[in-house]
Design goal:
Layout lengths: L9 H25 L2 H8 L3 H7 L3 H21 L7 H18 L1 H12 L6 H24 L8 H17 L1 H8 L5 H17 L2
């Protein structure tokens, strides 16, 4: 039998979490190419040799972050219930995506940065799991359209538009807040706007 990996100690688990959180901060600010292990170690409050004890390279840290991120990013779409009310299910998906942009802006920017670079470290995943999920949900959307329960639009581009209109508030948060001013809550206002937008778009 292969040897069983020893469980991480509390300190090891804490340091690993510190490194991943610091890496998320650095990658989301500087992108993969601009980030360095020295920056990650400094933000984590650890020495570079200590960081290398947990992760052998910048690529290794980035891969762990992206692997966890993609799975979390797919969950809101997975939750769309094929037996639910079509408009309610779509609006719930919009809300979940907007909430993710509000609560996890660094993760959104990390994902966007990877895509802008051509997705060299996650192309297989987006051409596999992500593409398969979108295809499956598009079939559900198409069925609802054929049943006359929502208006006919291109289902894949409908999903793209939800991504664009929700993730914008994380990826361009500085711009959004600068234009709106400090007296506005962009996510609350966006939620109301997007609900109206998609309700009118999809009205049968």
């Amino acid at each position: 039998m292969p040897p069983t990996a020893r469980p991480r100690s509390r300190i090891q688990q804490r340091n690993r979490e510190l490194i991943l959180d610091a890496a998320l901060e650095v990658f989301s600010l500087h992108g993969f190419r601009g980030a360095t292990l020295d920056q990650i170690a400094e933000v984590a409050g650890l020495s570079k040799p200590n960081l290398l004890y947990y992760f052998p390279s910048k690529e290794a840290v980035h891969k762990v972050l992206l692997t966890g991120l993609l799975d979390s990013w797919l969950d809101p779409l997975r939750e769309m219930d094929p037996e639910g009310d079509p408009l309610a299910e779509i609006l719930a998906y919009v809300r979940r995506k907007l909430e993710m942009s509000r609560d996890f802006p660094r993760e959104s920017r990390l994902f966007a940065g990877e895509i802008l670079q051509g997705a060299p470290r996650m192309r297989e995943a987006i051409e596999g799991d992500l593409r398969d999920l979108v295809a499956g949900k598009s079939r559900i959307l198409s069925r609802w359209m054929e049943e006359g329960r929502i208006a006919r639009v291109d289902p894949v581009h409908l999903i793209f538009s939800i991504w664009a209109l929700t993730q914008h508030y994380a990826d361009f948060e500085v711009q959004v807040r600068a234009v709106l001013g400090p007296e506005h809550d962009p996510f609350a206002e966006a939620g109301s706007f997007l609900e109206t937008l998609f309700t009118r778009l999809l009205a049968p």
